[in-house]
Write a structure and sequence with these properties.
single chain, alpha/beta, Rossmann fold, three-stranded parallel beta sheet
Length: about 325
């Protein structure tokens, strides 16, 4: 794992070991990758499954020299595997969990197919993370009696970035409804300015300054702990949304160029989840390389008032789940 993503699995009791390797550049990367490859070779693994399929992961699978190496049939890299799993090109409405499960099933034919209720995505919280999250909430003045809403405004891909002004509208609307409601706007450090701008706009639009705050320095483990203590998570289709899906917290997830059939939260059927998107468009889904209309309409067509209404329904005692196009 690379360091940023490592917290997703480091506390998982099903794993015996997690190797964390930094993503470097130039000669430093060559030296690091060579060291990891040698370590994998010396471990003498019986089998390797490449769930990623990228150049670096396929090289590591090959370097392990495991007698059984499972990966997707990808042009230029299939020769690195001993067991190849077809991966059709183009869009198909099949969840990514099922696609990756194909790899494990190729190694274990009796594994059976995955089910949301019995095989949900998981991420564990360790005591150290719990302590850090509790101290952070205390420092922010957020107490157990407050109704906490986490709104993740960041996205590494510009195709998945809902405008800051829209997030601000949702935050202002929710914060103004109940005096004990607290909104935390989250994002990673590189996009901290987006969270701060959404906070500024939310306050300018009527939210109390003590009701809305921005937190932009959380690791994925701390973000998960924060969401687990919240009453609701709101955010776009991104890594943090999948982290949030490992909790029991209700979710409102926005989808733009991607579709929930492939990338929706993989949670038990009883978990409260509402998906909001702009509905069918001739250019959706896309490969997120070039926006053909040029206006990102798949995201900007989502109305902030509709997202706030969906959040409001989820916050109600009998919150309703479902899928909405707005």
């Amino acid at each position: 794992m690379e360091p940023q993503a490592a917290p997703v699995v480091t506390a998982n009791p099903h794993l015996d070991e997690v190797i964390v390797t930094p993503l470097l550049r130039g000669a430093a990367r060559l030296r690091e990758d060579a060291a990891v490859a040698l370590r994998l070779r010396r471990a003498r693994f019986d089998a390797a499954i490449d769930f990623h399929g990228g150049p670096r992961s396929s090289l590591f699978a090959f370097a392990s020299r495991a007698p059984r190496r499972v990966g997707y049939s990808i042009a230029g890299r299939s020769w690195m595997y001993t067991i190849r799993v077809p991966r059709p090109r183009g869009y198909r409405p099949r969840h990514s969990v099922e696609n990756q499960w194909d790899l494990a099933e190729a190694l274990l034919p009796d594994l059976g197919r995955p089910a949301r209720d019995t095989d949900p995505v998981e991420m564990r919280e360790d005591p150290a993370t719990a302590g850090r999250v509790d101290r952070r909430l205390h420092a922010l003045g957020i107490r157990p009696e407050h109704e906490l809403v986490v709104i993740h405004v960041g996205a590494g891909n510009e195709f998945r970035r809902w405008p800051e002004s829209a997030f601000a509208d949702v935050a202002a609307s929710l914060a103004s409804e109940r005096p004990n409601r607290r909104i935390i706007l989250t994002t990673g450090p590189p996009q901290a300015s987006r969270a701060e701008e959404a906070k500024r706009l939310a306050i300018a639009r009527g939210a109390s300054p003590e009701a809305v705050t921005a937190v932009c320095d959380l690791g994925l483990d701390e973000l998960r702990g924060l969401v687990a203590r919240a009453r609701l998570f709101v955010g776009g289709d991104s890594g943090p949304a999948h982290v949030a899906s490992t909790t029991a917290t209700p979710m409102v997830v926005l989808f733009g160029p991607t579709t929930p059939e492939v990338w929706g939260p993989w949670r038990p059927d009883g978990a409260a989840t509402t998906v909001v998107d702009a509905g069918p468009l001739p250019c959706r889904p896309c490969d997120q390389r070039v926006c053909e209309p040029g206006d990102f309409r798949c995201l900007r067509g989502i109305d902030a008032a509709a997202v706030a209404a969906a959040a409001r329904r989820m916050l109600a005692p009998d919150g309703q789940t479902g899928s909405e196009s707005v």
